[in-house]
Design brief:
With 250 residues, this protein is mainly alpha-helical. It has ten helices and no strands.
Length: 250
């Protein structure tokens, strides 16, 4: 069966892909303008993300579609529960996956600087909340729903996860963003709503920021003192969250 069978329940595939490439191009334009204006990296990233949100909304309005064409629907409790489990734990599993590969840690310094330079609440807003909303509307709300009108659901989720990983333009982030994209895509598909994916994305980024800044210290210390137990616990919680999506209609 088609993922979204109703007429007008998704952007046309061509429009969705066009919005995606326009959003990617805007990153370079805004980055150049921000650099010339002397804006911070966090400010430039936030502006780029907000444009990612505006583009699909503009196309939706121009085509006369409703909000559910981008997945703005109230989800049930099951996918929300799965989103909390996945969002709070999948980040540590991805950190372990990245650690299995050798890479130049110097490439992480610019990102670490962005995470550490602003007050915590500003960092969470700019690197967790804004990306969670804007990227999910574009990728899971726009691209995935559009592709799923022409492809099998698993193919739409897989292809969108690949595009999501490539969008971040980082070899270091390629694997974790791909695996996260698969989980977010499954959440959006099973819930027929972009909201659980937003929630999981926000929690995932927030947890990574908190641990990177050692706030609260007790959490960072516990993870450092018991790495194996922490990894096993997070992997189990992620698996439970994923399994909830397989239990009948979400």
């Amino acid at each position: 069966r088609l993922y979204h069978a109703g007429a007008g329940s998704a952007l046309p595939p061509g429009a969705a892909v066009g919005v995606l490439f326009a959003g990617i191009a805007s990153i370079f334009v805004i980055g150049s303008i921000a650099q010339q204006a002397g804006l911070s990296v966090l400010t430039a990233l936030t502006l780029s993300e907000l444009l990612l949100l505006m583009l699909p909304l503009i196309v939706m309005r121009r085509l006369g579609l409703r909000g559910d064409a981008l997945g703005f629907r109230r989800p049930r409790l099951t996918p929300l529960t799965a989103a909390v489990l996945i969002g709070c734990t999948a980040w540590l599993v991805n950190v372990h996956l990245v650690s299995l590969f050798a890479f130049d840690e110097g490439r992480l310094r610019p990102l670490n600087t962005v995470v550490d330079e602003a007050p915590l609440i500003v960092t969470i807003l700019g690197l967790a909340l804004v990306p969670a909303v804007c990227e999910e509307v574009l990728f899971r709300g726009g691209v995935q729903r559009a592709l799923a009108t022409r492809l099998f659901p698993i193919a739409a989720v897989l292809l969108t996860a690949i595009l999501f990983a490539l969008y971040h333009m980082s070899l270091i982030q390629l694997l974790p963003t791909f695996t996260l994209g698969l989980l977010l895509g499954a959440l959006a598909h099973r819930a027929d709503s972009v909201v659980p994916a937003m929630l999981a994305h926000f929690l995932n980024n927030t947890m990574a920021i908190l641990v990177a800044r050692r706030q609260p210290a007790v959490l960072a210390d516990a993870l450092a003192a018991h790495p194996t137990a922490s990894l096993v616990g997070c992997a189990i919680a992620t698996a439970v969250g994923a399994s909830l999506l397989l239990r009948g209609p979400a």
